[in-house]
Amino acid sequence: MYNIDTTKESFKKVHKKKRNIRQGFFLSLIRMLGFSGAITLFVILLFVFYNGFQVLSWEFITQPPLEAMTRGGIFPVIMGTILLTSLCMLIVIPIGVVTAIFLAEYSKPGYMLKSVMMSIYTLAGVPSVVFGLFGLGVFVVMLNFGMSLLAGSITLAIMILPYIISTSEEALKAVPYSFREASLACGATKWQTIRKVVLPTAMPGILTGAILGTAKVSGETAPIMFTAAAFFTSGIPRSLFEPVMALPYHIYVLATAGTHIEETRPIQYGTAIVLITLVLGMNLLGIIIRLKQRKKRAW
Amino acid sequence: MVESKNIFEIKNFSIWYGNFQAVKDINLSIKSNRITAIIGPSGCGKSTLLRALNRMNDLIISSRATGQMLFHDVDIYDKDTDVIELRRRVGMVFQKPNPFPSSVYENVAYGPKLRGIKKKSILDGIVEQALIKADLWKEVKDKLNDSGLSLSGGQMQRLCIARSLAQEPEVILFDEPTSALDPISTAHIENLLQELQKTVTIVIVTHNMQQAARISHYTAFMYIGELIEFGDTNTIFVNPVNKLTEEYITGRFG
Lengths: 299, 254
Known about the structure:
A: 299 residues; 2 domains; 2 strands; B: 254 residues; 4-stranded antiparallel β-sheet; 10 helices; 10 strands
């Protein structure tokens, strides 16, 4: 039997105090750990900005590099990254969305679906440098694209494909079943239902995934270092079969392989600032779209 | 009441989900231009039977049907039935109002557009007529471009009715259409159903026995997948033949 203390003594603050101390301790511990992510980001940003802000100027983002990269800007580098990521998205979004439609709407549970899903998960777990080697072997050498914008974009597209598939699939699955039912009950075919009701409803979600995917791709170094990136090109590429400069690779090369590693430190950090701004900007855009969509959503 | 012909004839009809028989060997006729109510406790198969009438059960992979389901004397479970055309002629309104996340206008124009009607003037006419018939026109005529999801619950459900009416169906199936609505909206929809019944055949599944008694001409009582009793609503509610029916409508179980 429990001794249930029904006297007023039990309400005295002795127990409460002890509890409060424990509560307080764990609460502050959780708070600290919770903020560690934000603090890390803040420290990184501060560090990069402190080391690179001196080179930031209008010329820095509009002029090509000069005098063995020790002066001038990084315009072709920015353009290279924009071209690589845009082309990559152009390739990967249709394939990813169609695959997601197949998985979310048409596939039936079973061996087929399981193996497709397994492949996608595995593909997502492959290290990015392996994609780089694959791109080198297949697109650069075997298909003879050379180190080029095209080879790099396709390699990046393959790398980001699982991500685009899974975000699109989630967006499609988030569309309520009742919308599909309503459409079918109106005498729509399955494809009409997907095209006119499911896809438009899922579009903001798909778009958010694509933007976050673009942000991810724009910072990748390993997949492009064997397939697309050049240390120096005289301008922006004039065809798909020319190599390009790219922000992450530019930082890597200046920091490790250049002839003026020390002199170009500020430029390295300046380039990093541009890359971070690009990525954060895209993430912000993704978040804004998601918030807008959440506000609008009433089902 | 004038004699009315059978629009649906259900003969020895069963539905299976895998090895589970949800609807057991049912025989039933549904008269055209009348309201037929299907009542019964939860899980008795009444929604399953309703969804069989326009083959919405096809969406459940493990389901299969046996027996005959004749619509205008044609078995709709026949191999060469055009399910899409069937669903145009036999519309459906669901338990939870489910307008598409698009404008009021687009919601109603959805069905006609599927059938390739593109001309704005024709669509405008169809949309207006459907909204008038669903008794919603006065409330939404100035906000046809607002989102269908911005309406109140009762309005949304009438929008769904308008969407169904726009495809000019012969039958509309109602799956507990008022169970998510307040009493005033419910009364509004009940009145609407009695108005619609003049031009469309209505089959309604309901949990609410008073509702069935108020609005329907015929009532079917189902219990654990079987049709226990079917007949004139008056007879069923005043003089039920079967003991189970009596116990259910007097509220002794359910």
